[in-house]
Amino acid sequence: MPNLAEARLSVSRLACALFWERGVAATSGDDIAAAAGLSTRTIWRYFRTKESCVEPVLAKSTDRFIAVLDRWPPELSLAEHLVADAVEHPMSQQDIEDEYTAMRIAASTQTEPALRTAYLMVHDQLERGFIPVIAKRLRLPDD
Q: pLDDT tens digits, residue range 25-49?
């Protein structure tokens, strides 16, 4: 049985696909629940709104990006590090699909303003995640 984070990510992937195919307004919580094989009540226990269903996929992308930058050694340029890191930490097929989905959702915030709040919530987490990474690069405390 998957843990809560895995279950939320699984539902998030399905919700993102539905939003992309149908649009946010044409997708209900019931639709997401049916696609996930869960009750609508369970969906609302996992997520505060249907739009927030995209957050786990977006967060996975931002967490991965922060981890890549956190591994950046001081002696390498960013370009050199990104190449080396891609070899040392290859993405799985699912990771690639999730990155693609996250990019589609981010791009769709222009035409689907209802997703903008969820996008900004995750972006706020990204900014907070950058603080220790940048502090380390500058040899400063992260507080």
A: 999 999 999 999 999 999 999 999 9
The letter for the amino acid at 58 is: L
What fold does the segment set 4-137 form as a domain?
Tetracycline Repressor; domain 2 (1.10.357)
Task: For the chain, give every domain's residue range.
Answer: 4-137
pTM: 0.92
| Interval 63-71 mean pLDDT | 96
Would you state the structure tokens that stand for residue 44, as one six-digit string?
A: 């609302």
Cα separation, 138 vs 118, whole angstroms = 31
Q: Is the dihedral of CA 122, 45, 94, 108 positive or negative?
A: negative
Backbone angles phi, psi at 133, to 5 degrees: -65, -50
For the record, the structure tokens of 13 come out as 């992937």
Please answer whether residues 10 and 20 qualify as being in contact, where contact means their C-beta atoms are separated by less than 8 angstroms: no
